[in-house]
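ok trying again, last paste got cut off:
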Amino acid sequence: MDWPLLLACFLLPLFASLGLTFLLLVLLRRIGLYDRPNQRSLHDTPTPRGGGLAPAAVLVAGIASVAGPEGLPPAAWLPPLGGAVLLAATGWRDDRAGLPPLFRTRRSWRMRG
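nice, full thing came through this time. structure:
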């Protein structure tokens, strides 16, 4: 097993996500995209919204790097790429304007009866 390569495959996305999250939070504070606390909030002070875009971008970049011209066939990387983009878009939409609980809760996806 090539331990340096495995370690790099873990550390590179980790540090890229942390660095991009830090930069994104600075930008979100600058433009004023905050979550204002209410009675149900777990935080007491306004908190920036949208920090999940950074790890999502790193995930999409990772999938794209595996799917290079000589990489995996599209059937192997298109579903995870589509899922990552859909998840990031849903999270960003929720951060910007809020989504109804139907789209945010796991329970709503189960069959009722």
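cool. Strands lie at 34-35, 47-48. Helices lie at 3-31, 53-66, 74-97, 101-104.
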